[in-house]
Amino acid sequence: MSTASTRTTTNSTLQRGLVLLETIATSIHGVSASDLERQLDIPKPTLHRLLKQLEEQDLIVRDVEGRHLLPGERLHRMAMGVLANESLKAPRRMLLKRLAEEVNETCNLTLLEGHEVLYYERVETNWPVRIQLPPGSRLPLHCTASGKMFLALMGPAQRRQLLKHLPLEAYTPYTATEADELERRLADIAEKELSTDNEEFIQGMVAIAVPVYDQTGRIQATLAIHAPRLRHSIDSLMEWAPLMRRIAGQLQDTFDH
């Protein structure tokens, strides 16, 4: 085979692989192989060969039922590398700082990392009494405001896969440790697009979170405020929800470009 012919084949394979990754990554509820066959102009044998290779490289995974394809851990790590780009961190931090100065409490930008919440960016309050959770901290999904927001807005197939392997540990007397109770809370969060942590993770701490969407309407991060119960109740934090939603909309631009 000539060099030119090899290059054409390689480029074609690369393009098809990228199209597959993009389609799976932007699918809100996961996508099946049969869906991909209908949507994409890729021969069936080639499609299944590429999917097998992407799975072997941990770029995609199947849900617990084996029917839907979802972004894999390696693809999540690649996305994290893009988000860490210094040219985008400055405007994100400026927006986060603006919110923290307005509410005079600690504000966080969090990401979903596997089975945990990752504190990606944070601006601290100046109050002497505050919760110390630095960037890079990993928190549980089922009892934090950000974690429950991710769970509530992810596709049913992805949520089933996560909850199957997620220990619903009781961090405080207020933590939901039964799947049915957690699902009820998640349904309410999905409807309101607003999540709360009323001393469910740390006793004496309250928090609220709103989603940061991407251009397809899929949650890509959360914006959260937390504070000691001695300064705020859930109701008083909720007064900041309209401002949080506005800033979350501005944060979307720092992820999409």
Automatic annotation (TrEMBL):
Span of the secretion signal? Answer: none
Highest taxon above the source species = Bacteria
SUPFAM superfamilies from the entry? GAF domain-like, Winged helix' DNA-binding domain
Key words of the record: DNA-binding, Transcription, Transcription regulation
The segment(s) forming the HTH iclR-type domain are: 11-73
Q: Which SMART domains match?
A: HTH_ICLR
GO biological process: any one?
negative regulation of DNA-templated transcription
Q: Annotated Gene Ontology MF terms?
A: DNA binding; DNA-binding transcription factor activity
Task: Using the record's annotation, list all stretches that form the IclR-ED domain.
Answer: 74-257
Tell me the InterPro entries matching this sequence.
ArsR-like_HTH (IPR011991), GAF-like_dom_sf (IPR029016), HTH_MetabolicPath_Reg (IPR050707), Tscrpt_reg_IclR_C (IPR014757), Tscrpt_reg_IclR_N (IPR005471), WH-like_DNA-bd_sf (IPR036388), WH_DNA-bd_sf (IPR036390)
One Pfam match: IclR_C
Name of this protein: HTH-type transcriptional repressor AllR
